[in-house]
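re: ur question from yesterday

yeah so i grabbed the chain u mentioned. its 273 aa long if i counted rite. heres the sequnce exactly as i have it in my notes:
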Amino acid sequence: MVVELQLERVIDVNFNFHSHTARCMHAFGNDEDYVKAAIEAGFEEIGFSDHSPWPFGNGYVSPMRMGVQELESYALSVMRLREKYKNKIKIRLGLECEYFEQHIPWLCACCEKYGIEYLLLGNHFTPDEENGIYNGRIKTPQQLESYKNHVLRALDSGLFLYLAHPDIFMRSYGEFDSYCAEASRQIIEKAIETGTPIEYNLLGFENTAADGAKEGYPRDDFWKIAGSLGAPAVIGLDAHNPESYIKKKELFEKSELLLKEYGVQLVYPFGRN
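ran it thru and got these C-alpha cells back, copy pasting raw so excuse formatting
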C-alpha cells in the first residue's frame, strides 16, 4: 500500500481526516455521533483514523489502541455509516499508526482485507511501543534525534497520507532550541521531498493546557520554518469526542488564517476522484 498524492490547494472542501473512536480507550462517543457532529459543523468530508492495532508479542496489550480482533468491526461500522450518510457527507476509512517496520507487512495486508483507504503517520513511540519512549515526553537532544530519524524513515516508505502532529516532541521538551530547529528542518524537508503533508494538530492546544505548559504544540517556531520552506500542510482536529467537530470549528478557521500568514501551503491530500 503506497499513497500516491495529488495535492491541491484547499479552496472549496471542508475536511478532517483525523478522528478517533472509543475503541482506542481514550476517546468518547459512538461512531455515528462523530458523523452527525461533523455534518452539523459543516464538514463535507471526514475520515475515521483510529489508532491502528498491532500484533504485539510477549503478551503485551496496548492501553491506547483497539485490539486486533476489533479491526473488522471498526471497518464495518465506518462503511455502514458511509452508506447511510452518503447524501450528506463523504466518509473515509483510515488508521493512524506508527512505522513499526516489523509489523508493516501485516498492516498492509489488513488494509487490503478491510478496505482501509489511508494511513496517518502518528509517530507516538520510538522505536516501538513495548520498549520505547512516548514522543510527547521527549526531553533530551538524543531522544529528539531518535524521533527525527524514525520519522524520516517512515516518510521515505511512501505509506502515509500525511504526518500527524509532527511537532509532538515539543509537548515536554520546553525551549525550542537549535536541536529542535534542526530536527524540524529535516522533517519538513523530507515531507516536501516525499510530497507528504504535515498536520497542524488542534488537539495539541488541549494537551498543552492539560500539561500546564506555557507552550507545547503546535509550536509556532516549527510552523514558521514550515512556512519558510513552503511545506504542504493540513489542519487536523484529532477528534477524540464528537463535540470536537463543533467546538473546534472556530479554532480551525483561525488556524487556516495563521498558517497562510506563515506561508504554509494548505492542501487537500487526496487526488480528486
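noticed a couple things. Residues 137 and 182 are 19 Å apart (CA to CA). also The first helix runs from residue 31 to 40.
anyway ttyl
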